[in-house]
Design a protein that fits this description.
The protein has 298 residues and is an all-alpha fold. The chain is built from seven helices and no strands.
Length: 298
């Protein structure tokens, strides 16, 4: 298969798959032949048949053969998918992306080359048993992908060594910084201890002074609170007295008003005014009676 540019290993793999496909094809053809034989043995027992009977037999045979062919085509498509799955899985392990050209599957020249290979090389090719047993394709340790992988591994190893060296340097710097921090913290504690002894007395004196100040402020507050309470009590008493005085004055004003009204009613002018009003009221009543007599509807 020089036209396909296959090496010996890949050529053997193609032969294995073609043998598998041929065995499946032969098995399916035998099944189709058995369908015809069954029709002959079960239905073709009479000498003459009507058109409808022949049509019925052919329709039944067509359905059976169609089902067998359809099942074989579907099975072949699924088998090809499983084969592609093996190839793609192996390629992904090596971080490769395979591509396929669907249009090449109908290339007549290539199909004729495959048919020619099947007639000649396929019959005489010798398959190596060791390469035909594994279920998954094994990568060959020769150039190409292996070389790229070796270069990538070497690059990653070199990068890893650089990272390790950088990490050791950072760890050394971190340890030095940690030692310096420990020393600084120890010196700070010693300084705080010395300063604390000197400041303790000053703090005690300041605290005592603050306590005296607070006591004096509390005493002033209590005195002011007592004075405020006494002042509030005086204000309440004055308010009560003022309310009583107000009530007394209102009562006097009411009595004076009644007395004044009584005196006014006893005067001659009041009596004359009252008589005049009484006469006017009687005149008004008389006029209303007259009006009702002449105009009773109004």
């Amino acid at each position: 298969m020089a036209e396909f540019e296959f090496n010996e290993h890949h050529q053997n793999e193609v032969i294995n798959y073609m043998r598998f496909a041929r065995s499946k094809m032969v098995l399916r053809l035998k099944t189709i032949d058995s369908c015809f034989e069954e029709l002959k043995d079960s239905r073709l027992v009479e000498e003459t048949f009507t058109v409808d009977e022949v049509k019925e037999m052919l329709d039944g045979l067509q359905a059976v053969v169609r089902g067998e062919v359809e099942m074989e085509l579907i099975n072949t498509a699924h088998t090809n998918v499983l084969l592609l799955r093996q190839l793609f899985s192996q390629a992904e392990k090596f971080y490769l992306r395979l591509q396929s050209d669907i249009s090449e599957l109908e290339n007549r020249e290539l199909l004729e080359q495959v048919a020619e290979f099947e007639k000649t090389d396929f019959k005489t090719a010798k398959i190596n048993q060791e390469t035909s047993k594994p279920k998954l394709l094994a990568p060959l340790n020769e150039g190409g992908v292996a070389e790229l992988l070796n270069k990538e591994i070497a690059r990653l190893q070199e990068e890893n060594d650089k990272l390790k060296s950088r990490l050791r340097t950072l760890e050394s710097q971190a340890m030095s910084a940690l030692d310096e921090r420990t020393k600084a913290e120890r010196a700070l504690k010693d300084l705080q201890k010395v300063q604390g002894e000197h400041q303790l007395a000053a703090h005690s004196q300041e605290l005592s002074s603050l306590e005296d100040t607070v006591a004096a402020l509390r005493e002033d507050y209590e005195r002011s609170l007592s004075a405020k309470s006494a002042s509030q009590k005086d204000l309440q008493e004055n308010l009560i007295s003022a309310k009583h005085e107000l009530l007394r004055v209102q009562e006097q004003l009411l009595l004076a008003e009644k007395e004044l009204d009584k005196k006014f009613q006893q005067t001659a002018a009041y009596r004359n005014m009252k008589e005049i009003l009484t006469k006017k009221n009687e005149q008004i009543k008389e006029i209303r009676k007259r009006l009702q007599r002449y105009e009773p509807n109004e």
